[in-house]
Amino acid sequence: MLDWLLTFPGAGWRDRWVASGADVNPLSWLPERCGKDHRDPTTVRQIAVEGMRTLIVARVILPGHEFFVTWKTKGYQQILDQQDAALIARIEAFADQHQISQRTRRDAWAVLARIMLHTGKDLPDVAAEDIFELRAHYREKHGVPAQGLGWTWTMLAGAGIFPKDSSLRAALRVGQRTPAELVDRYGVAPGPVRDLLVRYLSERKTNVDYTTIKSLARMLAGNFWADLERHHPELAGTDTLALPKTMVTAWKERLAVIVAPDGSRRPRADFLDVLLTVRSLYLDLRDWALYDATLAPWVVAPPVTRADVAGNKKRKLAHQARIHQRIRERVPLVPRMLAQLEQDRRDAEAMLALAKQTPLEATFGFKGRTYQRTSTRVRAGRGLPPELAYDVICVETGDRSSVGRIEEDAFWIWAIVETLRHSGVRVEELLELTHLALVSHRLSTTGELVPLLQIVPSKTNEERLLLVTPDLARVLAEVISRLRNRYSGAVPLVARYDHYEATTRPRLPHRSSATTAPGRPPSAPPPSARCCAPRPSGWA
């Protein structure tokens, strides 16, 4: 095989391997090199395969990631045998402590073996970039994530190779982008206008939140200037914001509608918002030029006049009327929805109880259908605690499902709807609720101890205290009880990622299971790092 690789150009064995195309067809050399061998072809092939595997495990040849898609990592145990036994034992101990299934461990070890065989590194030298490279390869070539990547990162973090308590999901978050990055996302040509937009967003960044900055970048860079450059290439690199009237009119006509990929057209809902934002850009530059002379060359008449945005108040009233009408249509359906959610929850709990009582490969009946217990292989069932990891297959339809995932989803949908209904909080406020938000207050008049729900500032930037009604108290008590029972009496501390501000918040005892997505490693710290949040006085 090495003689065959020498016939290809390259500075080393890896370069010659890539030049030969062996990543796609690793045994293409057999007919040429072993065509006259008198032995049985099956024997010749087996010897060739073992020889190639030896070269790969010895890391003489470093195949690409595509090689392992068709060839698999059959020899990964040999590469693991070369590693530090104490380190392997430490990773296995971490997996035992966190009750990671044997199937998940095999996936993680296969990922690590593939990385070591591809890079030539040993286990302690595996870096985050290696996992990013494998993930990018799968997304580009196969459109799906590589199996076991998340748990691989978690196990390496547990062994101290990666930062403690880190996760792949957190590492992939880019966080808040700079104004320059936000502008460059829309392909604005380098030049004075691009620099001006970056400068403008940098100034506005000090007094608005990150969501507003992203919206401003989309409207100014994407909907406004990038669109103008696409239809008028002569604007690329210009040093003025003055635009001919015909150009502005054509831009407004394009902005008013959204063209779908299938060619259909619909009115743009935020048409006036974009016009107002563009007008504000021109007026802000005019006002700022009074204090900064470098902005004076950019002061020109805005292409959006007062008449263009005159209907904004009417639009807001119409939008509010549509919201009210939608509420009027849906309010009569709320009792039916609540009854259905309650029934779904009871059915899911009953089905889970039957699955727990049924031995593996045995069947049980539920609501007119027959289900057979199977091994836990359904992807949606991964990441669940052992008491919920029960998979079944419907005998009549052949559909596989995770009973634990069904029960988990049914409970949290019910809890979310009930909490929203009884408290009236916004969705963002619901996601920020923690166990510490439950406080109590003793009335000075009667001495009665009343429970309160503390809502952190959100849209209105005001902190609120809501009186917890008996119905809401029942829902919150069930949520807390569920978390405590799962985590040995403690509510886990979770670092919640704020998708609006693109920041990771401090570790807090959040009351939502949404921090752990189906099939992904939990972002909660190990049990040794969990703490039991203090109970509000007067609460069970």
What does this structure look like?
- The protein is of the alpha+beta class and about 550 residues long.
- The chain folds into four domains: about 170 residues, no CATH class; about 130 residues, no CATH class; about 70 residues, no CATH class; about 100 residues, no CATH class.
- Helix content is about 50%, strand content about 10%.
- A hairpin with an 8-residue loop joins strand 8 and strand 9.
- The C terminus is likely disordered.
Please give a handful of descriptors for the protein shown:
single chain, 540 residues, alpha+beta, 4-stranded antiparallel beta sheet, 3-stranded antiparallel beta sheet, 21 helices, 11 strands, globular, disordered C terminus
**Strand fraction:** 5-15%
Please mark out the parts with pLDDT under 50 across 5 or more consecutive residues, or reply none.
513-540
Radius of gyration, taken over Cα atoms and rounded to an integer in Å? 30 Å
Terminal-residue CA separation: 71 Å
Task: Estimate the helix proportion, in percent.
Answer: 40-55%
How would you sum up the global shape? globular
Strand order of the largest sheet: 3-4-5-6
Report the count of strand segments: 11
Number of domains: 4
- Describe the largest sheet: 4 strands, antiparallel
Q: Structural class, from helix and strand content?
A: alpha+beta
Mean pLDDT: 85
Short description:
By secondary structure, the protein is of the alpha+beta class. Helices cover 49% and strands 9% of the residues.
